[in-house]
Amino acid sequence: MPVLPDNLTIAQIETTIFRLPMHGALRWGKHSSMEEARHVLVKVTLSDGSEGYAEAPPRPTIYGETSESIVGIIATELAPRVLNLPLAQVQERLQTRVMELYLEIHEDEFQYWRRRERATCGR
Predict the structure, then answer these.
(1) CA 8/CA 88 separation, integer angstroms
(2) How far from chain centre, in Å, is Cα 102?
(3) CA atoms of 113 and 117, how far apart (whole Å)
(4) Is residue 103 over pLDDT 90?
(5) How far from each other are the two terminal CA atoms of the chain, in whole angstroms?
(6) Are 43 and 8 in contact (CB under 8 A)?
(7) Given the DSSP bridges, would you call strands 32-46 and 51-56 parallel, antiparallel or unpaired?
(8) Which residues, including other chains, have CB under 8 Å from residue 63's CB and lie 6 or more apart?
(9) Helix, strand or coil for residue 3?
(10) Residue 37: beta bridge partners?
(11) In this predicted model, what pLDDT tens digit does every residue of 16-36 receive, in sequence order?
(12) 81 Cβ contact list (under 8 Å, min separation 6)
């Protein structure tokens, strides 16, 4: 991982919803169709003026998220946690949180193997 300057911070995060029209509607099942995809463009500006861009495509049929919910979560949850903090600190916090979420999501699977080990050790 590159060493980041201590004075470099995230100055601004902007989101823009944009449309991706399809040549024809995508259909699945009897009542489901999609005529366009709506994604979110995320622009991050650092304190030195440099900018980075990312695309956040929602998956409403899989995860239930929408372009509007992505914009909302960035504005209310992500931005307040990272704006004006040293970039290295932001990166460390986000990596730590991703690992915590990974463990939370897969906790049941880990418990399954522990229970199975206990059950087979008692035989």
Answers:
(1) 8
(2) 13
(3) 6
(4) no
(5) 47
(6) no
(7) antiparallel
(8) none
(9) coil
(10) 20
(11) 999 988 888 877 777 777 788
(12) 93
Question: H helices of 1-123, where?
Answer: 67-73, 79-82, 87-105, 107-121
32 DSSP β-pair partners = 28
pLDDT for the residue 23: 85
Tokens of 47: 């304190």
Q: What is the pTM of this model?
A: 0.70
Q: Where are the domains of the chain?
A: 10-121
pLDDT digits (tens, 9 = 90+) for 72-102: 999 999 999 899 999 889 888 889 988 888 8
Nearest to 97 by CA among 86, 85, 109, 105: 105
Give the architecture (CATH level 2) of 10-121.
2-Layer Sandwich (3.30)
| Three-class secondary structure of residue 54 per DSSP | strand
Residues in the chain: 123
**Token pair recorded at residue 123:** 């035989």
Quickly state the pLDDT bin for 10 (edges 50, 70, 90).
Answer: very high
**What pLDDT is stored for residue 49 in this prediction?**
95
